[in-house]
Amino acid sequence: MREIVIGAAQMGGIQKAESREAVVDRMLALLAQAAEAKCDLVVFPELALTTFFPRWWMEDQDEVDTWFETEMPGPATQPLFDAAKRHGIAMTFGYAEKTPEGRYFNTSILTDKSGTIVGKYRKVHLPGHSEYDHDRAFQHLEKRYFEPGDLGFPVWRNLDAWMGMCICNDRRWPEVYREMGLQGVELITLGYNTPSVNSQDSAEGLKERLYHSELSMTAGAYQNAAWVVGVAKGGDEDGHPLMAGSIIVDPNGFVVARAKTEGDELVVHACDMDLCAFGKRTIFDFARHRRVEHYGRITGQ
Ligand code: CDT
What we know:
- The protein has one domain (3-299): Nitrilase/N-carbamoyl-D-aminoacid amidohydrolase.
- The strands form three sheets. A six-stranded mixed sheet has the order 5-4-3-2-1-15. It has a six-stranded mixed sheet with strand order 6-7-8-10-13-14, with helices on one face.
- It is an alpha/beta fold.
- Helix 1 (20-36) packs parallel to helix 3 (78-87) and helix 5 (174-181) packs parallel to helix 6 (206-224).
- It is globular and about 55 Å long.
- A hairpin with a 5-residue loop joins strand 3 and strand 4.
- The chain has helices spanning 20-36, 61-65, 78-87, 142-145, 174-181, 206-224, 277-281, 286-289, 296-299; strands spanning 3-10, 41-43, 90-98, 104-111, 117-122, 155-158, 161-167, 187-192, 194-195, 227-232, 235-237, 240-243, 247-249, 255-258, 265-272.
- It has nine helices and 15 strands.
- The termini are far apart.
- 4-methylsulfanyl-2-ureido-butyric acid binds next to loops.
- Residues 4-275 form the CN hydrolase domain.
């Protein structure tokens, strides 16, 4: 048995005016709870340090830059790394990254139990649009503020397991899971900020949106015999509701733990990485059963 006690650290809304320091304090409280619960790994949401700023139209690049981190850890996030190391807890969280070359990514990092960054992922599937859209109830400007990730979908050996990451909209694309599945991934972590309403279809309800989120993650888990931990930023952000629905999914596609609230909440489950082995050596033994000669449209070959 290779058990990793995972804490899915859902976060409630972060207001535009909330400082990084105030948000990090909330994350520290969740880490302390995780230490009490003997967690080995804590998973925080996408863009965990700030409000979901891509909903706001900005023309001034200096203003845009205020939402980005130029170093990780930086002064505001160092306490998080110090606490994780003190507790001996690995963690992953999302943030907006500005590189020294002036490139902008929607990024997540993964640490080991000593607080050392062992993995970095940059979001590949950026939803939304890049110009102001008058036809939407609210904006979703990820294509304006970020460029698509340039690191692909790597996996890392961490806590004696193969781990990979993706971010929010990525979870809806089967290729994302399969890219990691082909590398033997056993645990996929992801954070998300999903509005509770569809900006282009007011008839689509919360129930349907939660269902599609869960459907994507449970299918990805089952079809790749891997654990999937999806963690939301939920609740209200300056009048804009985000759906919650954080879940931990086992390698058979069953939800084994889920958030009960839309706020800061730690969802804990002991995840046995050895549960991935059966699916990987039987129905989803990719080397034996895939028929890549028929997948040309997908691979572009
Ligand atoms: N953050 C993020 O990727 N959210 C998207 C919303 C899509 S609506 C433009 C998601 O897929 O949940």
